[in-house]
Amino acid sequence: MEKKCETLARITTILKDVIQNKDRIIARLQQPYSLDCIPVEAEYQKQFSELLMKAASDYGALTTAVTDFQWSQNFKEPPSVWGEMLRPIPVALASCTRFFEAMSATRESFATLQSLRVGHSATPLPTTPAKDPSHRAIGGDSEHTTLPAWKNETSFDDLAIKSLRSQELERQEADDENSEVGDFDPVDGTSHRRLSWPPSVKKNGL
């Protein structure tokens, strides 16, 4: 009962407002429809309403299109100027395409190198059976890991030292041969080398 009483009180208030403002409401209803309208024939009203709904959903795109259309109308330059302005665009696009292809190729190359590097580091070292008993493991394993090849190879410093030593030996041998040839007398076949007496012989002679 309380809800019904509240509903009746609300309806009574609305009716009182209508009765008090009836003259103004009647005057408003008697006035002609003065808003702007687009006259459309009856057979096209359905299509026109659908067009309005679609235009309302695409209002942003339509606004942009209208702005572009107005700009094109205000652009008074001849077509030759348009051609000069649009000519660098294909060249720039081609340059961008080549740069993108080069970057893609570089990326693929780096990826390939990275995969090869990872695969090379992941491969285990080859194992060979140990011939020397000292190389056998304590646990009885008969295989041992071979050392990398670069540890057994000579370095550039060792090669340089060996070459210098060989050159010095060859130079000394050449000097010895030259000295022997210079002291030899071709007439009597004797050599003019200086003879040195031992110290004991010198003392006895004195």
From TrEMBL:
Q: Name one Pfam family in it.
A: HAUS2
- Where does it sit, as one GO cellular component term? mitotic spindle microtubule
> Which region ranges are annotated with the description Disordered?
121-150, 167-206
GO terms in the biological process aspect are:
microtubule nucleation; microtubule organizing center organization; spindle assembly
The biased composition feature labelled Acidic residues covers 173-186
InterPro entries reported in the protein's UniProt record: HAUS2
Q: Which PANTHER family match?
A: HAUS AUGMIN-LIKE COMPLEX SUBUNIT 2
Name of the protein in its database record: Uncharacterized protein
